[in-house]
Amino acid sequence: MLGHSHALSGLATGAASLPWVPVEGPVAQVAWVAAVGGFAMLPDLDQSGSTIARMWGPLTDAPAGVVGTAARGHRWGTHDAVLGPLVFGLLAYAASWAYWSSLLVLALAVGLALRALHFVIPGRAENTVIGNLVLSWGAAWLLLEHSPSPLWLPLAVVLGTLTHIAGDFLTKEGVPVPLFWLVRRSRLAPIHLRTGTTLEKAVLAPLFLAAAVAFLYLNTGARELLDPLLHQFDARS
């Protein structure tokens, strides 16, 4: 799937899961949804030189090369539905116990979401290395300063990673057979949806966006804020 499709599906998944995750208050809810949306891009950090790997220049491209080597190439280890969430989740768990490492992980999520959703963001700052660094780190700091300790970060990483793998499972290239690919490289690809087709751009991506908006309305304070306004509008009409 395209990057923005992964990010939109992650935002929708994050918003849909709000009733069952340990986050309270609007700031923590926004942080959770943004994190899942960003981490839905995380498995693609297995290819040095890719768009996402170039997000922060050498700061992301160099680790992407290491991740790609450890994962045995693009769409293998990081796209394993067992190993990918497990390894990324454990790393996030270790990071969640310290403020600065939590800030780094959340900034990475925000940066990935900004880069993937650049087509709906005015300007081009989020597509530049410096602009993305400033925006993602600033947003991560703001979210952490006004929300409880982010011990939910590992959950967001696992959910975002699984959302990405589920999306790629629908594509022609598929995803590796969990664990078995380590012995014999084999993939699961039952549907064969081509990446970047009209179906993805005109149907799936808008559906993900609509789902994200609907679940945000249902599962956050937006419902309490908007319902009185809608009632007033109906009364006047």
Polypeptide structure, described:
It is a single chain. The protein is mostly helical and 237 residues long. It has one domain. Helices cover 60% and strands 2% of the residues. It contains nine helices and two strands, in the order αααααααββαα. It has a two-stranded antiparallel ribbon. α1 packs across α5, α1 crosses α7 and α1 packs parallel to α8. The mean pLDDT is 88.
The largest sheet has its strands arranged as 1-2
Mean pLDDT equals 88
**Percent of residues in β-strands:** under 5%
Distance between the termini: 43 Å
Brief characterization of the structure:
With 237 residues, this protein is mainly α. It contains nine helices and two strands; from the N terminus they run αααααααββαα.
Key traits:
mainly alpha, two-stranded antiparallel ribbon, 9 helices, 2% strand
Per-chain topology:
Elements: H1 3-16, H2 26-39, H3 58-70, H4 83-95, H5 99-116, H6 129-145, H7 153-169, E1 175-176, E2 187-188, H8 198-219, H9 222-236
Antiparallel strand pairs: 1-2
Helix pairs in contact: 1-2, 1-5, 1-7, 1-8, 2-5, 2-7, 4-7, 5-6
